[in-house]
User: Fold this.
Amino acid sequence: MSEVNEATTEATSSHNDVTLEALVRVANIGLSIGVTLSVGGALVSGILASGKEYMESVADLFEGVNEQGEHLASIYRRFAEGVYSEAIPDDANIEFIHLKDATIYHGTTDFNISLWRGKLSAVDGFSFGTLKK
Assistant:
């Protein structure tokens, strides 16, 4: 089978948009680029973040809050160091996309949130760049 046929078969058999999945893979090694995602009728706009950066940022939110917050912070730091400590192999399944400085637009309402995590397979479409009002 030719490389083109293999790529076409892979692209049509996956539940994820392979171009968006490629961006997520590159984000996991340091790319920061603005994207806007269409997810279930809403738009989610923000800066791509690596899984490790996302987990570390969540840990920072819990750190210093109280004893339970410290416990949660340690759990998320373990995720950052365990799950996201090394480059993800090319053949590994990518399941989640992470954004920082995110805004969710739903109808006429928008919600500014610092971090967003979603299932890659739930993304209906995407564009480069973030939305501005």
